[in-house]
């Protein structure tokens, strides 16, 4: 049933754009391919950035040039040619001549299954919205509420202009430029992303989501997010979208930095559904993401992710538990189907006393895909009474896919308690027959079994997100058992 | 209601059922008895549509229509229910959620609306009371960590919820102590009506003291070698299965 050919659609959309003489406009705003100092300067200039930012980018570029692309992950893919990529492209504007009738009916059917509103569908396909009143008013109300509380939530490019002191102080402190190849690349060429600051003692009254950051479509290929929760504050942040995100950019290298000050709590939930490539493994996004947060005293960071998209995923949302009594959590569902490859997991770095971390990872592999969990639990010498619990479960469908677990544990303190549990199971013929006998067909039975398997993680997502994620799991695995 | 005609079935080249003929009318209870390896469980699996077994000859007819080409879920939608000898576990899926899905899939297939949550809950309360089930079980993962007896009781609970036309109880008595056996049998008897039929597959006569069959069939080496009334079960119990080998 999984026959929506996104490649075809992409081609179709491209030619349509040419037909309407729309693409040419854009082209004048796209930089030539390749990366050098001039391109980095040009990106900075385009964004009208202050000099410190330009210098920061240039430093990053110098560092990146000296680095090699990592190859330790359990994924195989042709290495991108970094001189063949255009590093700046203006956000796509709305095509006035395009309507939803121009969009692939299969894709629309999928939106319907996911329960995505017509307006959202239009937004995702760059179709002009005719009923803008609602969304605009929602956005305005939303911005008012946040402003009253002193919460700053805006594109990072605006934050660089309006709150340079905050950006300058924190950017690159959690994920330093030299951290890894992709983080360095991102630091040199990031185009946009989100910035969020929650003042002392403020509980953010709503889930912050990029969706509300209206008129900021196309977050781009090199997204940069910086989220600061000041002392005693709380925020829940949602990233991504359950709808299939298409993007002609093959390479995505995002950086996310979280800072939880004393007594603060950050919940960061992601649903990633980038184009995974077609049934034969052609096309698809390479997603190389560096996400990390730091916890000060008595604070907590909780990462929840549902990863169903991308041809190649390389992603390890991590917590540095620097403060005493701080808590790090990682809940993950990673689904791979067809020829997808995912190498994902987390790092929990325990530095403070009485620090606690929990890792629940659920990997689901189908088709000919490879799904790896890679995690590090590190207990520093001064981290008295640190505790970790890890559980890694893999579910296999069919006999051509793979599930792998690479847990690393390093403890320098004898008082640490570390637990690791792992299971691997397969959806059995007998389970399917049992469901069938009760009148539940095979597709539905798989959805039921997969949801049961993923329940511990789905429960951690905010309510509406969880419902969408559940549907997404079903759709991602449609037709995966023959 | 059910008619099995000259049914031959097996796995790959190995024949297990070698010409079964059986007619079951609405309102009847049939017992199928036989020694281990006689083909009892294969027969129930083939009626339910398990694709592990291949039908090489004959037919299975439900309400004047052959069901051999139908998938197991389609047969279930037509009212076939099989209580499993070894019910499977589905971690993370509660019994309530499972049965809700099963009922609504069946209703959908028969062109009906989903059962409103209120009615569903009411039904769950009634049927779990009928089987003297602790409702705590219903919120636990399906069959996970259930004892043998709890699993069997759960099967009959699902049967009660689905209200099948034809129920096949495959070795439902195995793993049940006498108290649980009585409860399960009592449940089955209460669900029995003039419109449905039950096939009880069992090795021992014991269950048939509580679910009293109208007909008893003895299965041996893939064939029904003797049929009779309920007294046949007692005769079998007395003489042992060696007796049928010489029939």
Q: What sort of overall outline of chain A do the alpha carbons produce when their principal axes are compared?
A: globular
Percent of residues in helices of chain A comes to 25-40%
Q: What is the element string of chain B, with H for helices and E for strands?
A: EEEHEEHEEHHHEHEHEEEHH
| Largest interface summary | A-B, 23 and 31 residues
- Beta-strand residue fraction of chain A: 25-35%
Radius of gyration of chain A: 22 Å
Oligomer kind: heterodimer
Major pleated sheet of chain B: 6 strands, mixed
Spatial gap, N to C terminus of chain B: 29 Å
Give the % helix of chain B. 25-40%
Total beta strand runs of chain B:
12
The total of helices of chain A stands at: 13
CATH-defined fold name of chain B: Rossmann fold
Work out the number of β strands of chain A: 19
- CA-atom Rg of chain B in angstroms: 18 Å
Spans of at least 5 consecutive residues with low confidence of chain A: 9-28, 126-138, 211-220
Topology:
The complex is a heterodimer of chains A (482) and B (247).
Chain A: H1 6-19, H2 23-27, H3 37-46, H4 51-65, H5 105-114, H6 118-124, H7 132-149, E1 152-155, H8 156-162, H9 164-170, H10 181-189, E2 194-198, E3 208-209, E4 224-229, E5 234-240, E6 251-252, E7 255-260, E8 265-272, E9 286-295, E10 300-307, E11 312-315, E12 318-321, E13 327-336, E14 341-350, E15 356-365, E16 370-379, E17 387-396, E18 402-411, E19 417-426, H11 429-437, H12 442-458, H13 463-476
Parallel strand pairs in A: 2-4, 3-5, 4-7, 5-8, 6-9, 7-9, 8-10, 9-11, 9-12, 10-13, 11-14, 12-14, 13-15, 14-16, 15-17, 16-18, 17-19
Antiparallel strand pairs in A: 1-2
Chain B: E1 2-11, E2 14-24, E3 29-33, H1 40-48, E4 54-62, E5 65-66, H2 72-77, E6 80-83, E7 90-94, H3 95-109, H4 117-130, H5 136-139, E8 141-142, H6 148-162, E9 166-170, H7 178-191, E10 197-202, E11 215-220, E12 223-228, H8 231-239, H9 242-245
Parallel strand pairs in B: 3-10, 3-11, 6-9, 9-10
Antiparallel strand pairs in B: 1-2, 1-4, 4-5, 7-8, 11-12
């Amino acid at each position: 049933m999984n026959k929506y050919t996104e490649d075809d659609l992409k081609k179709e959309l491209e030619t349509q754009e040419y037909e309407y003489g729309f693409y040419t406009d854009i082209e004048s705003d796209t930089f030539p391919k390749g990366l050098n100092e001039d391109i980095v300067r040009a990106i900075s200039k385009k964004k009208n950035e202050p000099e410190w930012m330009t210098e920061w980018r240039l430093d990053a570029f110098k560092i990146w040039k000296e680095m090699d692309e990592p190859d330790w992950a359990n994924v195989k893919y042709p290495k991108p040619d970094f001189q063949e990529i255009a590093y700046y492209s203006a956000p796509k504007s709305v095509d006035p001549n395009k309507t939803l009738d121009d969009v692939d009916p299969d894709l629309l059917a999928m939106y319907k299954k996911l329960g995505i509103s017509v307006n959202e569908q239009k937004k995702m396909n760059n179709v002009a919205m005719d009923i803008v009143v609602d969304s605009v008013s929602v956005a305005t109300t939303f911005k008012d509420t946040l402003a009253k509380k002193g919460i700053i939530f805006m594109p990072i490019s605006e934050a660089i202009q309006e709150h340079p002191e905050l950006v300058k102080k924190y950017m690159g402190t959690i994920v330093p430029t030299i951290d890894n190849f992709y983080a360095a690349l991102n630091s040199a060429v990031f185009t946009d992303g989100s910035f969020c600051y929650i003042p002392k003692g403020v509980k953010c009254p709503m889930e912050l989501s990029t969706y509300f950051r209206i008129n900021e479509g196309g977050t781009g290929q090199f997204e940069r997010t910086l989220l600061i929760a000041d002392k005693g504050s709380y925020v829940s942040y949602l990233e991504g979208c359950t709808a299939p995100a298409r993007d002609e950019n093959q390479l995505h290298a995002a950086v996310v930095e979280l800072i939880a000050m004393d007594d603060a709590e950050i919940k960061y939930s992601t649903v990633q559904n980038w184009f995974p490539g077609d049934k034969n493994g052609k096309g698809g996004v390479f997603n190389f993401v560096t996400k990390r947060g730091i916890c000060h005293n008595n604070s907590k960071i909780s990462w929840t992710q549902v990863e169903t998209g991308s041809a190649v995923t390389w992603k390890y949302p991590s917590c540095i538990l620097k403060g005493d009594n701080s808590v790090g959590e990682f809940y993950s569902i990673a689904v791979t189907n067809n020829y997808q490859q995912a190498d994902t997991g987390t790092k929990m770095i325990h530095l403070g006393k009485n620090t606690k971390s929990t890792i629940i990872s659920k990997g689901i592999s189908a088709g000919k895909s490879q799904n790896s969990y890679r995690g590090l639990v590190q207990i520093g010498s001064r981290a008295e009474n640190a505790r970790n619990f890890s559980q890694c479960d893999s579910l296999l469908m069919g006999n051509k896919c793979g599930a792998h677990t690479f847990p690393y544990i390093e403890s320098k303190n004898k008082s640490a308690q570390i637990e690791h549990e792992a299971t691997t199971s397969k959806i059995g013929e007998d389970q399917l027959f049992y469901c069938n006998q009760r009148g539940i067909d095979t597709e539905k039975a798989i959805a039921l079994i997969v949801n049961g398997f993923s329940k511990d993680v789905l429960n951690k997502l905010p309510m509406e997100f969880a419902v969408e994620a559940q549907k997404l799991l079903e759709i991602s695995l449609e037709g995966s058992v023959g | 209601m059910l008619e099995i005609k000259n049914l031959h079935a097996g796995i790959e080249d190995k024949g297990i059922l070698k010409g079964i003929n059986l007619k079951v009318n609405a309102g009847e209870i049939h017992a199928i008895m036989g020694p281990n390896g006689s083909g009892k469980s294969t027969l129930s699996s083939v009626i339910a549509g398990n694709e592990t077994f291949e039908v090489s000859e004959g037919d299975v007819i439900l309400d004047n229509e052959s069901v051999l080409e139908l998938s197991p879920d389609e047969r279930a939608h037509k009212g076939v229910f099989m209580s499993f000898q070894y019910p499977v576990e589905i971690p993370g899926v509660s019994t309530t959620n499972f049965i809700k899905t099963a009922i609504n899939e069946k209703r959908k297939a028969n062109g009906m609306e989903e059962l409103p949550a209120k009615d569903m809950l009411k039904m769950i309360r009634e049927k779990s009371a009928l089987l003297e089930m602790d409702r705590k079980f219903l919120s636990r993962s399906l069959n996970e960590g259930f004892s043998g007896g709890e699993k069997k009781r759960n099967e009959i609970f699902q049967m009660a919820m689905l209200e099948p036309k034809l129920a096949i109880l495959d070795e439902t008595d195995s793993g049940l102590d006498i108290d649980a056996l009585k409860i399960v049998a009592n449940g089955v008897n209460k669900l029995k009506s003039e419109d449905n039929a039950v096939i009880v597959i069992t090795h021992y006569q014991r269950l048939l003291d509580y679910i009293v069959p109208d007909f008893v069939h003895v299965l041996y080496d893939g064939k029904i070698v003797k049929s009779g009334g309920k007294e046949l079960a007692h005769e079998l119990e007395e003489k042992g299965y060696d007796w049928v080998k010489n029939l």
